[in-house]
Fold this protein.
Amino acid sequence: MARYDHLKLVRLPERLERRKTGGGGPPPARDRATHPGKVREQLDQAIEVQRQRRKPEMVDPSLILRVSMTGASMEEEWAKLGLTVVSSDMDKSLILFSSREEMDQLIARIDAYSGEIPKGQKNPSYQGFIHAIDSIGVVQPKDRVGPRFQEDGFAEIADFVADEMYWVDIEVWQIGRREARERKLNQIEDYIIAKSGEVTDRYVGPSLTVARAHISGALLVSLLKIEEIATIDLPPQPDFETEEALEMELGGMPVPNSLPDDAPIIGIIDSGINDHPMLADILVGSIAVPATLGTADDFGHGTRVGSIAAFGDIRAQINAGTMNPGARLCSAKVVNGNGQFDNRRLVPTQMRDAITGLNEQFDCRIFVISLGDRKLPYKGGKVGIWAATLDELARELDVVIFVSSGNRRPRSGNRVEEGITDYPLYLMEDSNRFFEPAGAMNVMTVGSISHGEGIDGNLAAFPNVRAITREGEPSPFSRIGPGMAGSIKPDLVEVGGTMVYDATVMRLRQGDDLPSAGVLALHHAYLGSGPIKIWDSHRQ
């Protein structure tokens, strides 16, 4: 198969987040003579494997099972048997926890299914439940190797060097109340210290339990065999380039290279574009719709959008010591200094006047609209009038229009930590559908991917600061489709920043608060604030 470097496909890490699942259709037909025996044998083997793995220093025997289900996952039924579902995957692979090794109630169900069919019943007892169990096993040690280790080539536990020291983050399964998880973490820490390792910090939150440790490869391999440990991974890597760019003064910026005469022109439909020194030679003109708005960008959004449209990854360009614009810009200001549309004009009217105006005056045929209606997520069916207007303009003028899919702060339920533990599942919720006008069929809708983990050098040492994403994964705030008639939306993705969970302040932080979590853009008020601004390029 041909390989194209510009088409980068990133596989999301298998995190087995805890979530409720249901449905899935009826369980398959099973051979009553052989299936219960197979399930019982697999259960006995899983229990025995964990007994043999258990370290004598680790008290409080407990059981972690990996159960593959077919049909409905039946989490409620497992709960009736005293088993806690600590995680479930999209393919109905459940991670179950029990504080006891005795599986008396599960064994009783298997035996009842195998016995005589009760009078008055057509089917054996618990048939639906037993038939839904495809297999029972254990979480293998290599399954606990985190994605950062895997990216560095640690595919098997044999890849760890016994006498080499590693800084690691150790995450514990959510095996019950905070007190139970803290007790288990204490036992793991005691074991590490007894084996000459060092535990430097810990965080035990409502739904997140993790410790930072400095341990040998031999001890790391030993820890991978402890059932209550969910993952062991390298700590997040800090983004030092962002910190350096923030300290740059205007005089230290590379001089933009000149553009050829036939360079394309991109029209920015936003809050205007200011005459920033880095944009002076590429901004060909500006209009305002309505004209009473004036063309100055006093809100700041348009200058940032324009700078990214022209230069792309500004961080990478600064690191390379050059600024190479890819296009010229023209601007149509359609929102006021508060980022609001004109009260007296319809948005479709403003869009039509802005796009046709730039097209006529500057022969612009590429447009970027990083605006959206926060109160109008797409719910299927017919698109709104804003999207319909853009569809019309794209056909009439034979132009290309790019629209942001919109942002949504990750739902946190009762716990802000769910921004980590439920990622990326919350991106697929109905409430995370894109904003109007991103559902337009004739426009290119753009979603956001992360540039990295978003943790700077000051925060990287603390386990209570947790990255949500890695490079190339969907940004936690990005919205998705599908679009009308099940069409694929967004059509494209671009780097737009990420978010980081900071337990110290108990919130999710992004570029406007934590520079390393954002992307670089040019500042509209450069004389007072410097030429660079940290910003989420897909933020509405």
